[in-house]
Design a protein that fits this description.
Blueprint lengths: L2 E5 L3 H11 L4 E5 L2 H10 L4 E5 L7 H10 L8 E5 L6 H5 L6 E5 L4 H16 L1
Parallel strand pairs: 1-2, 1-3, 3-4, 4-5
Helix pairs in contact: 2-3
Length: about 120
């Protein structure tokens, strides 16, 4: 069973993601980037769902830390955001990593397709 780390400060988003994904994936939950990095010290997921806008440490800063950790090379990251695009500079941090954007509010079939695709890419 694939492991997914979900990082989002919004309880409603976490509830939706948990309800949709809990049957098929093992889930870890973090409410901000600092908690996510602590989880990543002990548990390496197959995919990270990472909110862009969070208190304490936003998704971009969290991603910068993920990219610097050699144990996390190649783990796909799907950013979660209400904005239309990612900051272009974020993709330059690790041009070989599978990074995508999933818009909020979530379109569940699109989300599931994106997660499945990301996990297949991550297995290569």
């Amino acid at each position: 069973m694939n492991k997914i780390l979900i990082v989002d400060d919004n309880t409603l988003n976490l509830d939706i993601l948990r309800d949709v994904l809990k049957e098929k994936y093992r889930l870890s939950i973090a409410k901000n980037g600092k908690i996510a990095l602590k989880i990543l010290e002990k548990n390496i997921p197959d995919l990270i769902l990472l909110d862009v806008m969070m208190p304490v440490m936003d998704g971009y800063e969290t991603f910068e830390n993920i990219v610097r950790d050699d144990r996390l090379i190649g783990i796909p990251v799907v950013f979660l955001s209400g904005v239309d695009a990612l900051e272009p500079s974020i993709l330059d941090l690790d041009p070989n990593r599978y990074v995508r954007l999933l818009h909020k509010p979530f379109d569940i079939p699109v989300m599931l397709e994106l997660i499945n695709h990301a996990l297949k890419i991550g297995d290569v």
